[in-house]
Amino acid sequence: MNMIFKRKLLIPKEVKEMYPISPEGALAKRGNDARIQAVFTGESDKLLLVIGPCSADREDAVIEYVSRLRGLQERVADKIVIVPRIYTNKPRTTGAGYKGMLHQPNPQEHSDMLRGLISIRKLHMLAINESGFSCADEMLYPEHHRFLDDLLSYVAVGARSVEDQQHRMTASGLDVPVGMKNPTGGNLSVMMNAIRAAQAGHTFIYRNWEVESKGNPLTHAILRGYIDSHGITHPNYHYEDLAHLYELYAQSGLVNPSVLVDTNHCNSGKRYDEQVRIAKEVLHSTRHSTEIHALVKGLMIESYLEDGCQKPGEGVYGKSITDPCLGWEKTERLVLDLADLWV
């Protein structure tokens, strides 16, 4: 085997005992879970916004951003439920590049997975303790979800992972909403099959245990655009795309039909400032169809303190080191506008 086994890592129970969630944090998470889940079951008609940096790169800037979201949430609480996006691991198309805090707690230093596991738990704990938000993270590695499961209120499965059996089965055992992105090639049947698999119960191997899941009825779709065989990006957030997804859901028999629209990635062609227009167009579509209005539960928006992105090492505080994001001023204006537009 061409691998070096460097060291045995701590197990989730050990890390949780080292850094336990506070009683106040656990109470806040229960309240957040209830508000978020009510959106997906249709008990709440509020708009869900999963919003934040493309990837969390440094604790201080992320916590400042999340703290600003708390004040914004209070201003739009009658219309919008905000879930901060704290993505601590980053999928890479070729395997090269910054892979997130799980791998590199400090982007300028070499990988250190043990420090990474502790750093990402401390970051999510700090967010809930200082802002009351239990946040969203991407489940890039199903086996490490247990390090964070008592802190998260939303989980995403990315476009490169959505066809993987272990991701689908692990999602079937979670008790928070799990969003399944359409794959990078855009085949919606892959995404719908992932939702079907995750909504069903399974027996499978997880962290060297034989486990049984009951199925997760809160698993749902995320539309993020796609890349065709010629390398050209295409959006899938338009009215016709949402109507098509509604029909797929209607034929599927799946419960809680829901979609979040990712306003960046291939939907924007990574032109981050297009997210403002895209978000408003999606809400415009919901006003022209009761079916689409019922289907669209919210948006995923990439946003940070500063506009755009930078190369690792440039050191601009609060500016993405991966995909470009909306800066705070544009983010604040967009969220307030969305609250006005959502009916």
Can you put this structure into words, describing what you see?
By secondary structure, this protein is of the alpha/beta class. The protein has a single domain (18-341), classed as Alpha-Beta Barrel (TIM Barrel), CATH 3.20.20. The chain is 39% helix and 15% strand. The protein has eleven helices and twelve strands. It has helices at residues 12-18, 23-41, 59-75, 113-131, 165-172, 188-199, 239-252, 265-268, 274-286, 290-295, 328-341, and strands spanning 47-52, 80-84, 136-138, 154-157, 178-181, 202-206, 209-213, 219-223, 226-227, 233-234, 259-262, 296-302. An eight-stranded parallel sheet has the order 2-1-12-11-8-5-4-3, with helices on both faces. Strands 6-7 form a two-stranded antiparallel sheet. Strand 9 and strand 10 form a beta hairpin. Helix 5 (165-172) packs across helix 6 (188-199). It starts with 11 loop residues before the first helix and ends with a helix.
User: How many β-strands, per DSSP?
Assistant: 12
> Largest sheet, order of strands side by side?
2-1-12-11-8-5-4-3
Number of alpha- plus pi-helical segments: 11
Helical residues, percent = 25-40%
Quaternary state of the chains: single chain
CATH class: Alpha Beta
Can you tell me the residue ranges where pLDDT is under 50 for at least 5 consecutive residues? none
Radius of gyration: 19 Å
Question: Could you state the CATH homologous superfamily?
Answer: Aldolase class I
Q: Tell me the fraction of residues in β-strands, as a range.
A: 15-25%
SSE ordering: HHEHEHEEHEHEEEEEHEHHHEH
How many domains comprise the coordinates? 1
CATH T-level fold name:
TIM Barrel
Give the structural class.
alpha/beta
If you average the pLDDT, what whole number results? Answer: 96
